[in-house]
Design brief:
This protein has 3 helices and 10 strands, in the order H-H-E-E-H-E-E-E-E-E-E-E-E. The chain is α+β, with helices and mostly antiparallel strands and 192 residues long. Strand 1 and strand 2 form a beta hairpin.
Amino acid sequence: MRAARRSPMPRLGFSLIELLVVLVIVSIAMGMMLPRFRITAYTAVQLMGMQMAQDIDVARTRALTTRLPVRVRFHTSTGTYGGYLDHDGDGVFAESAVEWQALRGFGERRLDQGVRFGRGNAPPIPDNSAGGDITFAEARVDFDARGLVRPMGTGGVVYLVKAGKPDAVVAVAVTPSGNTRLWTWRTEEGWR
């Protein structure tokens, strides 16, 4: 009796050519999509402005919850800003590591790569004709235990610009009541 012939087993896996074809197709798709995921100068400065506005809100909220004064200081020379809580309630800020740790917020933050304090080609925002990159007195904003800006009735603006792109500008404004607002500069539209 003759043994029945077995059919060969089906092939499992992919051939080298099939894998190369798939890799080429994926590479082409990635090459077409990658430029869309790049962050533009306008987006980078917008994101940094949003982060700063959020950090200022955190500082104000911390003043309200602890019933202690809080300070946000802007350091133009180093491209940083920091938040400090007057943890001992003596009304004096040493702007020390102990005070920024007591804030339990953002501590000290460096501006993102290529973003710096500055107004670029943008004029001052509406309702604030003060000149300079930071219009707060002594480059700082202080909140009292009620979350109001000290001295009473003052507010200010911090302008951020993308280096090399003088039209990519945002402004973080703080009202005397402590509210923050983010403004974006568009050459065609102005501040919005």
